[in-house]
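so my prof wants the structure for this chain in the tokens format not the other one, which i didnt know existed until like an hour ago. anyway here's the sequence
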Amino acid sequence: MLGGRDRTLDSRLVTLDSRLGTLNSRLVTLHSRLGTLHSRLGTRGPILRHRGRRFGRGLLAGSEDLDDDTKGGLTRIDRHGCFLPSWSRRGGGTTARSPRRPFGGANGTGWQRSSHGPDAGRASGNQYRGVMCGRFLSLTDLDDLVDHLRVDEVATDPLPPRYNVAPSMEIYATIDRDGSRRLGRLRWGFLPSWARSQRGGRQPINARIETLATSRMFARSFAHRRCLVPSDGFYEWQEDPEGGPKQPYHLADPDGEPLVFAGIWTSWRDPEDEAADPVFSTAIVTTEARGAIADLHHRMPVLLPPTLWDDWAGATPEDAPHLLDTVAALGAPRLRATPIGTTVNDVRNDGPELLTPVSD
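here's what i got, hopefully its the right format
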């Protein structure tokens, strides 16, 4: 009797050992595949870890869910599996910084975006070439922006001048709170507060004015979180009727004055990491093209004249719907459209040579 049980037990042990061997083999195979995947991803550039500074208190008083006394970090890969651009700190060393302190007090630590290197905005920016508005320039000195935008409070270190600003980069923006205009930074690419993760899903860089008040994505920000986004012009690509390469154009104010885009912004917190810092992001509002832009594209960014800056940035939620009619009544903006070379197509290229005119 006992011998029979022993044989049965031995048989079961042999079966279990065989299954464990099969499982181990599968684990080895999985490990090998993960190694291959890691190797392939590695060819696109390093995984970047964003580490931010803590915010100062009170600069965004009155804003909803702006818990600015937390610490944390994140790894950011866009929905195409591409890595975000690298950032450099003055004095050497490369790291990455997410815009967790867009309007917090600048303490002189000197974070700025690297304008060089193989990952500098390429993966995240090139996919938006030809999107309205998918690239723009940011050249005006910070002090001049403060004067031009009538800023009361500066909450950022200077950003380096950029001739080829692309989605996912940090950009200047202003918000109005308690009768004061604050200039800070936001990440370009709207990450809604209800998103489960920032590693995938839709993160639009533009928001259509026609649906701002009704869109699940944008309605709350339109009511409560509008901003001004300064620029020194933007790029648009004109379709070739014969199917050839698109022709890029540089559009700018004829007198060289900064342009001001209408924007909306939001904050996002990682639902799986309560200690992580919030991520602040923005989208540029677009409308039907008018004037010179209409020959290049059917959409254009909403360009706000100085007389509308206070209305756009400071209107109450109750008055916000009236902004739609105000924007609809705007005439064609004064813009100079200049055809330029295709060097601008790659966001790794960043310099005044991008603006060199070419013949039509």
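also thought this was worth mentioning. The first strand starts at residue 49 and ends at 51.
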